Amino acid sequence: MLFSVWSIHHDKKLWKNLSKFDPCRFLDSSGRLTIPEHFIPFGLGERRCLGESLVDMEVYLFFTHIMHQLNVRAEGTILILESDYRLAIQPKPFKIRISSRED
């Protein structure tokens, strides 16, 4: 059986405000992380991506290292996190200011 991950992740019956960047959709009413069954970025079953655990570990290490070493702030008054739909979903251009925590 084949299925389209894109179609599942863009199904209006499963997700609210599809075009809005909203990390809160993965939080329950008490603020705890909850991953819905229909969120399957690495596929399912025998064809599931073998690199999922490696990606989880690498993203965690990369992100925590950046947050520990650098200050990351939005450049300007409002940071609008919108995206363009092309071959892959891409964020629209935005500016951030990155500085060393030593400054």
Automatic annotation (TrEMBL):
Q: Which GO terms describe its cellular component?
A: cytoplasm
GO function term, MF aspect, one? iron ion binding
Answer yes or no on keyword Oxidoreductase.
yes
Q: Which UniProt keywords apply?
A: Heme, Iron, Metal-binding, Monooxygenase, Oxidoreductase
Q: Which domain of life is it from?
A: Eukaryota
Q: Does the keyword Iron apply?
A: yes
Q: Per UniProt, where does heme bind?
A: 49
- Which Pfam families does this chain map to? p450
- Biological processes annotated in GO: organic acid metabolic process; xenobiotic metabolic process
Q: Which PANTHER family match?
A: CYTOCHROME P450 2U1, CYTOCHROME P450 508A4-RELATED
Similarity comment text for this entry: Belongs to the cytochrome P450 family.
The name this protein carries in UniProt is Uncharacterized protein
Q: Lineage, please?
A: Eukaryota, Metazoa, Spiralia, Lophotrochozoa, Mollusca
